[in-house]
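To whoever is on call:

I kicked off a structure prediction for a single chain this morning and the downstream step that reads the tokens threw a length-mismatch warning. I double-checked the sequence; it's 167 residues and nothing unusual in it as far as I can see. Pasting both halves so you can look.
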Amino acid sequence: MSIIQKKIILIGSFSVGKTSLIRRYVDNSFSDDYISTIGVKISKKMIDAGDKKLMLLIWDVEGALDNIRRVNKTYIKGAAGAIVVTDITSEHIGETLKIHLEDLYSVNGPIPTVIAVNKIDKDPGFRFDMEPLLKDYPGIAATLYTSAKSGQNVEELFAVLAGRITE
């Protein structure tokens, strides 16, 4: 059985839960302790992708602080897919997602992308209209409402992206 390696990145604003989503997915753990990612941290997870094994190289990229101090584009280069993370407590969700998608696409083009609206455990009924983004960014495969704390839709988040990058 062949093994394929693919780099995927998680990008988003500061403190939206990128590291927590990765921890939940890779280690099935969660901590309320907040530790800011500096630079990039790489995790690995082997999954089955049909008749192949897929080694996901998951890049946890430090969060952008604002519109001026954005994600370092060298971390984005070479990604086969991306998860762009926001959370329900973020202000200006549409604007910040657009900035991250523009940064992502400016380096890699419209690679397979999944939007994670995290911290849904705080307000299970929360919804955000993604239609304007979907028409402008054709790489968006799905939008999932996630909770790293409860594990809601975390496996699905990575499974949808893995399915798209192996098509």
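Update from on-call: the warning came from a stale cache, not from the record. Cleared it. Sanity check on the structure: Residues 93-108 form the longest helix (16 residues).
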